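S.,

Sequence below, as promised.
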Amino acid sequence: MSTSPTPGRVVVVTGASGGVGRAVARAFAARGDRLVLVARGGAGLEGAVRDVEALGGKALAIEADVADPQAAEAAAQRAEEEFGPLDIWVNVAFTSVFAPFTEISPEEFRRVTEVSYLGYVYGTHAALRRMLPRDRGTLVHAGSALAYRGIPLQSAYCGAKHALQGWHEALRCELLASGTGVRTTMVQLPALNTPQFDWVLSRLPRRAQPVPPIYQPEVAARAILYAAEHPRRREYWVGGSTAATLMANAVAPGLLDRYLARTGFDSQQTDTPSGDDEPANLWRPADTRRDFGAHGRFDASGRTRSFQWWATRHRGVLAAATLGGAGAAALAWGRRGRS
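The prediction came back faster than expected:
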């Protein structure tokens, strides 16, 4: 299967009304793809359609809850009826609760799991029912550093991301064993400046924030677009903080537990007290009447580039440069020894 970029492909993006999903829709639209935008919030979807069309793409908005498998199937069916065979399916949609585990009700925990884990499963089922008979297609799953490293105050979200990681590995093995041309890959993302911190249900005494360093959602979107074009790798890490966290967790998880126990509560909250009128999108969308866009309220500190991501994409060049440098040094040392 060719992985070179082909403009005009049919791309489904879940969670497309805001945040990373919104930025991803823009990234694909900029190359002329046809975007199927799936989300619950009407105002956010309308804004996403405007973004896509302004960039030269075509857009189909579908209001649907990814936690409903029938809704996912209906979205896939409508996408093909209006735009043609699916080429790429990008799973982004999620929800969460910011609170200690003991303050999250069983119903809330189930809801987070249904959206943030099973929503990916249901969407992928719908996509594979169409991709496998054609022997082509790409699945891209937006993950997180928290797929490997749990942190306090986000137990439901961390559980869902850990589940996604295990599910993705199993799915990838099965696709490889079948010999199909369909590919699946996962992109592990860092802390991002998205509306998540304005609309996720929070029981924290102060307003929630991403754990610094914070990256702009366009960094994630560029990585997801690249992964869709190069899906043979099992996963991609984005951001130096992601790489550092995952490596530290592999080497000294117990020490990281203690570090996060000391720092994880304060680092996820600003100095501003939480308000009683803040929206929460757990049970109903927060962007039904208001378009939140792709960015949150941390533009001043959001990073627009990631050297780690650049190095990931150019690791062949870096490896060659490293080997070349080592060879030159060895040659110089040898000549010095003979002089």
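DSSP finds eleven helices and eleven strands in the chain.

Coffee later?
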